[in-house]
Each structure stands twice: as structure tokens, then as C-alpha cells.
Amino acid sequence: MSKPIVRFAPSPTGHIHIGNTRVALLNALYARREGGTFVLRFDDTDVARSKKEYADSIETDLKWLGIAPDVIVRQSDRFDLYDAAAERLKAVGRLYPCYETQEELEFRRKRQLARGLPPIYDRAGLKLTDEDRAKLEQEGRKPHWRFRLEPTNVTWDDLVRGHCHVDCGSLSDPVLVREDGTYLYTLPSVVDDIELKVTHVIRGEDHVTNTAVQIQIFEALGAAVPTFAHHSLLITASGEGLSKRLGHLSIKGLRDAGLEPQSVASLAVLVGSAEAVRPVADLNELARLIDFSHISRAPAKFDESELEHLNARLIHEMPYEAARERLAQLDADAGEAFWLAVRGNLTKVQDAVEWARVVSGPVTPVIEDKAFIEAATNVLPPTPWDAATWKAWTEAVKTATGVKGKALFMPLRLALTGLDHGPELGALLPLIGPERAMARLSGQAA
């Protein structure tokens, strides 16, 4: 069996969102697992809306996710291929010119609906003679070009949806080339899949309706039809569809918010599947969990609160070596003992900044019972301090004051950290150290 070639084909007209990323990840991780090739194809035939800054952003996003492509192509560099394919289809009578305006087509559609007929194109363009076409062009009309569908039942076995079939006799012949000579999505996509030898087309279920048409184009061009997998789409927690234009859950935004790429990837791949949604730190392991037959056909909700929960779980298990470089960039690298002490209280790596400040100061202590704090200060254990110091100290404080439980621990936490919550003080106290601890217990900011 040959190794798969897959592609992710975004339009560089905005920042990609989590829904686009689901497509990219399923393609890239499937290729990784099977030893195949992951192609990034920029669908940038819309020259007016396509921007280099968005293409660069997409490459940055994929690299951040850990799925940099093996091959990058741009449709704007490939018009000769599309032109040649269009000429081949014209030569065999499968691509034909039509001259109706949008107003004329809309009028016909309404008339068909009023008569109880399906609103499909009546193929009037096929009935035009050479003289008819010459006359229309003399009037200044330019043709758009439609692909003549064979009125057959097109079938395919979808890796997600199972056996699928579409009666092409119930469809309008699709427009492949506009009046101005520019291409719609369909023909360039098929031509690229043929030329790049794509074996598997893994994409959202919103493309299912295109598949029967594209299969006929593959066959008309004498090419093998790839395997299709149409997975469920992601929607927001409130049930909205995701949109680049509206900026829903952009990868750039999630990255800038300090989320881990592994948490984003885990939720994007596992939500809406038979697998339990959980943080998967290794992309190879995540790739092994992909089973197209276990992806639900119902839209899957992508909940940002669930993403933060997954992110926190990843951070809680993250080794110091994985966090060290970013801690240094945040000026919050206080060593491995510090990281192990605080990571269980973090949602994002950047949250460590607050606890680095608590350790090294300055902290304004909160002292509500001076007599209790003085008594506690008098029984501070001798140096050096270690992981056992906190337990020894609190036992001594309990003996000296008779106070125990929360009434003992909370005043000490407030005095030492200025906060009523946080990591275990057994781990923090040696990091704070005797000098800062003494200063804070005496009411000084330190």
C-alpha cells in the first residue's frame, strides 16, 4: 500500500480558527502516523482578498501546533495547470459556455419553483448554436463555463460517513469558470489533487455536496479518485458556526492568550469522537488516537472553558525542562523546585509570574492578628530550611498558641504571601527563605 498524501487547503484571507485547525490536524497527524506527506496548499486564486500576511500567519500557526507541512504550494502559481485542464474538458464536451446574467438565472429559478419543478439549471447553454453564441458575444456578453454532469448516481465509501451516494441528475451543472475567466474553487482543487497525487481528501462535512461533482471531474480528466473522509464541523459553545471573518477562536488569538498548542490540538482532534477528550502532550500519541469511523456526524461544540481546563491539566504535568525556556522569557525562572511547587496552581505557564513575585517579592503582608504572628515568629525553625520546615514550624506554632486548622494556616499564608490561596507552603517556604519570611512576618513589604 502506498503512503498517503494529504492536503490542508486554506484561503489566506484571514487568520485560521480552531475549525480550520481541526482539518489541518486530522490531515497532518494521519500522514504522520502512516509515514505519508502533508501538503499545505494555499487556495489564493482570489487575488484581491488573499494576503501574504495571512499566508505567513497560517504557516506560523501550523508550526506552533507542531505540524509544519512537508510541501507548500500556492494556487496563484498554478494557473497554467487549470487552463490546460479547462481546455481538456472543453475538448471532450464537458465544459460548455453559458451567457445568462444572474438576473436571468434568478428569474428562471423562481419560475421553476412556481411550477413545482426543482430549481436546477436547464442547460440552455448547450442548445446554443455557433451563431447564437457569436450574437451574444457581439452584444458584449462573456460566457461563464459550466461542467456538464452525467445524470448518474455517484457513490463513494467515506471513511467517516460510510457509503454515500448522490443523484447528479438532481443537480445543476456547476459553474467552474466565471465570466472574467477566474476559477471557482472546484476545478483548481481537483487539478491540484491530481497533480500532487493526493490519496486522501480529509475535510469538513460542508464539502460533502461538492464530492459527487468533483468525482465526475476526476473521472473526466482520466484521474484516479482519492479516498474521502468528511468529518463533523466544530461550532462554538453557543452553537454558532466558526468564521475567519468574525475572528472566532483564531489560533493566533489562542496562542497570544498563552494556551499550550497540545491542549488546542487535543481538543480539536478528540472532541466529537469516541475518544474521551483529554490532554495529550505528544502528537504521535494523538495521531494514534485518530479513527475516522469513530468521529460523530453531529457538529461538535468547542468550548473555551474546556480548553482552559485541558490546558491546566497539561501544565500540572509539565516537566521543568519543557517550561524552562518560557519561564526565562517571562523572567520567572526560579528553578525546578519553584516550578514543581507552583505548576499545580497554574492554568497557563505565564501564570507563574505571579508566584515568582510571591517567592522573590516584594509582597505586602496581610497581618490581622499581630500577637499570633509574633508568637509564630518566635518559634521559627533554624536554618537551613527544607521541605520539612513548614510542618515542623506549624506544629511548634500549634503547641505555642493552641490554634490549629485553618485558623493556624491562613494567617501564616496571608502574612507570608499576601494571598489567601496558592501552592502548598511546605514547598514555598524554603523558596521564600528566612530573610524575606522574617521581614514579612514583621509587617514589612519584602
From TrEMBL:
Protein encoded by which gene: gltX
Function: Catalyzes the attachment of glutamate to tRNA(Glu) in a two-step reaction: glutamate is first activated by ATP to form Glu-AMP and then transferred to the acceptor end of tRNA(Glu).
Domain Aminoacyl-tRNA synthetase class I anticodon-binding: 370-442
Family: Belongs to the class-I aminoacyl-tRNA synthetase family. Glutamate--tRNA ligase type 1 subfamily.
Location of this chain's protein in the cell: Cytoplasm
Molecular function (Gene Ontology), one example: tRNA binding
An annotated GO BP: glutamyl-tRNA aminoacylation
Locus of motif 'HIGH' region: 10-20
GO annotation, cellular component aspect: cytoplasm
Binding site for ATP: K244
Source organism per UniProt: Microvirga tunisiensis
Enzyme Commission (EC) number: 6.1.1.17
Record's keyword terms, sorted: Aminoacyl-tRNA synthetase, ATP-binding, Cytoplasm, Ligase, Nucleotide-binding, Protein biosynthesis
Domain Glutamyl/glutaminyl-tRNA synthetase class Ib catalytic, first and last residues per copy: 6-308
Catalytic activity: tRNA(Glu) + L-glutamate + ATP = L-glutamyl-tRNA(Glu) + AMP + diphosphate
InterPro entries named among the record's database cross-references: aa-tRNA-synth_I_cd-bd (IPR045462), aa-tRNA-synth_I_codon-bd_sub2 (IPR020751), aa-tRNA-synth_I_CS (IPR001412), aa_tRNA-synth_I_cd-bd_sf (IPR008925), Glu-tRNA-ligase_bac/mito (IPR004527), Glu/Gln-tRNA-synth (IPR000924), Glu/Gln-tRNA-synth_Ib_cat-dom (IPR020058), GluQ/Sye (IPR049940)
Predominant location category: cytoplasm
Subunit details: Monomer.
Record protein name field: Glutamate--tRNA ligase
Motif annotated as 'KMSKS' region, chain positions: 241-245
